[in-house]
Write a structure and sequence with these properties.
There is one protein chain. Helix content is 23%, strand content 37%. By secondary structure, the protein is of the alpha+beta class. The chain has a single domain, classed as 2-Layer Sandwich (Alpha-Beta Plaits), CATH 3.30.70.2330. Strands 1-6-5 form a three-stranded antiparallel sheet. The radius of gyration is 14 Å and the shape is globular. The relative contact order is 0.26.
Length: 117
């Protein structure tokens, strides 16, 4: 569990997106592996009207000169802390680190990121 004071003191946290096995997100992550890390950016999109979590924050992968796709969400525990900050206008940035997994058949991919407050 992430403590609010840890985030405020450190101002950055390493995490991964959740929900990456839903829909076609595994195919999207597999496709992202083809690009250089410098061509991939992440955007955090606040979803106040999400019926499953009113603190939901979507993770949108953006490939330079290509397009964007929702590849997952910030965990509900972390989103519970970040959502009020985003809603109040505080700058919360995400930095793409790497795509993990997929080394063996049927091994899922995940996406690692750094969040900066």
């Amino acid at each position: 569990m992430v403590k609010a004071w840890v985030l405020i003191k450190m101002q950055t946290i390493e995490t991964k997106a959740t929900g990456v096995t839903y829909g076609k997100r595994q195919k999207a992550l597999e496709h992202l592996r083809r690009y250089k890390n410098t061509d991939i950016a992440l955007h955090l999109k606040r979803e106040k009207d999400n019926i499953h979590d009113n603190n939901a924050i979507a993770v949108i992968a953006i490939v330079k000169n290509k397009g964007s796709y929702c590849i997952g969400y910030i965990s509900h525990i972390l989103a519970g802390f970040l959502a009020p900050l985003i809603d109040s206008g505080k700058s919360v940035q995400s930095i793409f680190k790497e795509i993990r997994g997929g080394y063996e058949p049927y091994m899922n991919y995940s996406i690692a990121m750094q969040i900066t407050i």
